[in-house]
TrEMBL record:
<protein>
    <submittedName>
        <fullName>ABC transporter substrate-binding protein</fullName>
    </submittedName>
</protein>
<feature type="domain" description="Solute-binding protein family 3/N-terminal">
    <location>
        <begin position="39"/>
        <end position="276"/>
    </location>
</feature>
<dbReference type="InterPro" id="IPR001638">
    <property type="entry name" value="Solute-binding_3/MltF_N"/>
</dbReference>
<dbReference type="Pfam" id="PF00497">
    <property type="entry name" value="SBP_bac_3"/>
</dbReference>
<keyword id="KW-0732">Signal</keyword>
Length: 281
C-alpha cells in the first residue's frame, strides 16, 4: 500500500468520524428541543371513541390536528389539555396509526402518547408510563337480538367469531374462550363496528367506555358485561400516558394527574360519551 493510498484512507476515516459526531449532536439537539419546546406534542389515533375521535370542527373543546383540517376530541384530548396547561405548554395533537405511536415517541416525533393505551409489561420494555389516568373492564360488543346478547360468561361465546384490535391485549384474551373462532385482528374500532353490523363477526372485545360509545352510536348493538369475565392484570385494563424512557416529564405529569379527582375524571368520561360523533359507527 503506497503513501497516497494511506492518506486517502485516513481522510475517509476522519470524514466518517465527523459525520457520526454530527448525527449524534443532531439526535441530542432533537431530544433537547422536544423537552424545551413550548409545545406539548401528543400522539393518538383519533379513532377510538369515547377516548379519542376525529371531527370536522372545534365544538365541545376539540383540538385541531397538526397538519390536518380536522379536529380531535374525546376523553384523551381533555386529559391532554389539562396536562399541557399544567406544563405551561401549548397542546399539539398528532394523528397517527396505532402501530405508529411507539415509534413516533421513541424517535422524538411526539412528546407523549395519550391514546387509551394500557401500560402493559411488553410496552414497558420500550417506553415508560405515567400513573394511570383511567381504569375500566373488558366487555363484548354484539348485535342486539343475537344469541350472544344474554351471555353471562366468556365461554358462552364458544363457536362465536370474535375479534379485537390489532396489537392490543384485547386480542390476546380471546384465547381464554374455549372453542371460540378467533377472527383476524382489525386495525381500529370503526372497522370492527362495520364488521359487526354486517355480521362478518359475532362480537368484538373492548373496554367498557368504548362499549357504551358503540351502543350509543348504533341501536343495533348491545354490550355484554360478564359475570365470569376475562382474567386480566390490573395494568391491562388501566390507561396511562406513554413517555420516553427516563423522560423528565414523567414526574410533572404525575403531579398534574394527581390533581384530577376521580369524580372529575368520570365527569370528563361521561361528557365524552355524550359528545362523541354518531358518524363513528
Amino acid at each position: 500500500m503506497n503513501r497516497k493510498t494511506i492518506l486517502i484512507l485516513i481522510m475517509i476515516l476522519l470524514i466518517n468520524i465527523s459525520l457520526i459526531g454530527c448525527n449524534r449532536e443532531s439526535d441530542i439537539e432533537s431530544e433537547e428541543s422536544s423537552n424545551n419546546s413550548d409545545t406539548f406534542k401528543v400522539g393518538l389515533e383519533a379513532g377510538y371513541p369515547p377516548f379519542n375521535w376525529t371531527q370536522i370542527d372545534s365544538s365541545n373543546g376539540a383540538v385541531k390536528i397538526s397538519d390536518n383540517s380536522e379536529y380531535a376530541g374525546g376523553y384523551d384530548v381533555e386529559i391532554a389539555k389539562k396536562i399541557a396547561e399544567g406544563l405551561g405548554k401549548e397542546l399539539e395533537i398528532v394523528k397517527l396509526e396505532w402501530d405508529g405511536l411507539l415509534p413516533a415517541l421513541t424517535s422524538n416525533k411526539i412528546d407523549a402518547i395519550i391514546a387509551g393505551m394500557s401500560p402493559t409489561k411488553e410496552r414497558m420494555e420500550t417506553i415508560d408510563f405515567s400513573n394511570n389516568y383511567y381504569k375500566s373492564d373488558l366487555v363484548m360488543i354484539v348485535k342486539k337480538g343475537s344469541k350472544y346478547e344474554g351471555a353471562a360468561s366468556i365461554n358462552d361465546f364458544k363457536g362465536a367469531k370474535v375479534t379485537a384490535q390489532l396489537n392490543t391485549f384485547h386480542y390476546s384474551v380471546i384465547d381464554q374462550i374455549d372453542g371460540v373462532i378467533k377472527d383476524v385482528a382489525m386495525d381500529n374500532f370503526p372497522a370492527m363496528r362495520v364488521a359487526l353490523q354486517s355480521e362478518m363477526i359475532d362480537g368484538y372485545v373492548s373496554e367498557r367506555p368504548e362499549g357504551v360509545s358503540a351502543i350509543a352510536a348504533n341501536d343495533n348493538f348491545a354490550m355484554v358485561e360478564f359475570q365470569e369475565g376475562f382474567n386480566t392484570l390490573d395494568d391491562d385494563t388501566a390507561i396511562a400516558v406513554g413517555l420516553k424512557k427516563e423522560s423528565d416529564l414523567r414526574e410533572e405529569i404525575n403531579e398534574i394527574l394527581k390533581g384530577i379527582s376521580d369524580k372529575e375524571r368520570q365527569d370528563i368520561m361521561n361528557k365524552a360519551i355524550k359528545n362523541q360523533p354518531t358518524l363513528q359507527e
